[in-house]
Structure prediction request, 336 residues.
Amino acid sequence: MPSADRGAEEPKEAEDTAEPIDLSPLGPGVWVELSVAADVEAVEAVSEILTRHAPGGTSVEPAFGLVDEGLGAGIDTSRPAIVRAYLPGLDPAGVRSAIEEASKALGHLQAFGLRPIGDLAVRLVREADWAEAWKSHFRVLRVGRRLVIRPTWRRHRRQPGDVVLSLDPGMAFGTGLHPTTRLCLAALETLADEGLVSGVRVLDVGCGSGILAIAAGKLGARELLGVDPDPIAVEATAANARLNGLSRRLAVRRGSVPTGEPPCQLVLANLVASLLVQLAPLLAAEMAPGARLLASGIFHDREGEVREAFALAGLAIARRWAEDDWVALEALLVAA
Ligand code: SAH
Prediction:
């Protein structure tokens, strides 16, 4: 058993600098996670210290920043990374001493004046929770006043008027967590409040998980078509349509515009600015006279270009929604 001997010299509470943590649940199948936020230049030294005291595996999670119109993520070296290390939680005395020693060694490193290092954080992780841990990041999410996005494994107590979408975000983009999706959902809810969704035919271009089409379906749209070039998205949309009892109203196909279908009253397109610019005439061609387009995924500095392309395609901007760096536009087809 590791470190059992160190337990003997254990009780020296006075210099216990680590945060107090209840170690009573320790036992077989419980691991202790030590983690520290460290500037990129200090990562190696911090990893080395943590590995020495918690030899059950180390990981480094860099900070990410948005690139490529906010759609991609790149490593951001100006922000601290998180270094994590694990040790088996079999022996409380050994664990306590490992925490203390690691904390002391980190203190020395800080004293060297290396780039910033955060405090040592300690957490217990049960082996059984491992595989499911990522699910804890997805919660029931309310958008606008009525829409509720419920990950399939969570419960939601329905309030009067709630429109609940059950989604499995494990599968494709479109969990409702991204601001561009949220913007589009909020806009859709507003259109529904104005009676512009109920009974209409809707096209969702780039349907991803199908979240927008499903929301439109739940808000009363009569017939829905989702298209996406990504086969995983097509599968996810079909599965989520079934989960929400919309299989009969919501069709999904691999591909994009043009769809070859008769024009519809509402087009949803949560893409990126460059695609919206490129596809503007094709999106307009899917719209019946007076139809509406909800276009989202526009990084704020690209809004001008999208507006220009829309104007050229006969699309007049009716409303604008914004959140953080993102913009969504509602456009009406004016010219024939
Ligand atoms: N509608 C979902 C997903 C948006 S992500 C939501 O709002 O959350 C954008 C989606 O567009 C992706 O699923 C991607 O596969 C799809 N896409 C990429 N290029 C496309 C194109 N040329 N035409 C249609 N969809 C496209």
Remarks:
- Residues 257 and 283 are 7 Å apart (CA to CA).
- The longest helix spans residues 92-111.
